[in-house]
Amino acid sequence: MSFPKQQKNIYSVPFLAKEHGDFVLWFFTGSKCNLECTHCYVESSPTANQHPFLEMDTFNRQLQEAISAGYKKIDIYFTGGEPFINPNLLEMFEVAIMHGDVTVLTNATTITKNIARKLKLINESSEYHLEFRVSFDGPNKVSNDIIRGKKAFERAERGTKNLIAVGFNPIITAMRSWSLLESDQIESQFKDLLVGYGIPEEKQKLKIIPQLRIGREADRDRPYVKSELFTLECFTDYDYNDLQCSKCRMVTERGTWVCPILVNDDEAKMSDNLTDSFKPYKMKQLACWTCRMEGMVCTN
User: Fold this and answer.
1) Rounded Cα distance, 144 and 89, in Å
2) DSSP H helix total and E strand total for the chain
3) Is the pTM of this model over 0.85?
4) Which of 36, 69, 110, 285 has the highest CB neighbour number within 10 Å of its CB?
5) Which CATH number fits domain 11-293: 3.30.390.50, 3.20.20.70, 1.10.260.40, 3.55.40.20?
6) pLDDT in tens, 147-204
7) What is the DSSP letter of 4?
8) Cα separation of 63 and 80, whole Å?
């Protein structure tokens, strides 16, 4: 079987954030992670260094560019790698939460009781809110640890419980690595897990994302195939507001990328700074198919 290298039909996605006033600002805290998940589309690991740790100077400068652009609303996200191994993270939270709601995508394995208490104080310091997306890839240690590594489930559980103990209600996030036929069963098991953590079903937040067949996931399962390419009909009368790249940008220590999914693809780099990235994006990467055809959304 032959595998494509990029989309056959390339579409220019307009940057619409200026039009409707809502902007999603992502910060990539660095490629390093304390885990080495077998499905990681950005290929993070304890030794990864495609993007070095995000520095405070870069963070402050690019955040100020977003503020100066005059958007009515800015939602701020942090991802990596594992954000909590960046030594500047809590300081970044303290600054970011003064300007918009803040979400961090984390494996939660390093969130101690002491860190959870500090996060609570940061959350209480502003009218905006601090949210956590905690990554599990199975509702038990067997299904999770085969992807995320030995004892990852146990450590993530501990961090998640520390967050819940100080009043947070994390969004449990998993990549759908199982068959669609098993979806109801797996989601039910996740709900039972959260009940065990003290979160009743009516308050639970569970986010299941489709497979992104790039990075290690292309090896773990399979890469994209020719049937997963755009056709002309894919964008006939299509509302580009449905695509995150129409309203978000991703800041790293190496510059600004179009989105968090493509942070290792230099063709997806928009500029060296944030302001110059506010322009249309030519959507030709294979992972863009998942966003368009499966409704992939990186935000909460």
Assistant:
1) 26
2) 9, 11
3) yes
4) 285
5) 3.20.20.70
6) 999 999 999 999 999 999 999 999 999 999 999 899 999 999 999 999 999 999 999 9
7) -
8) 17
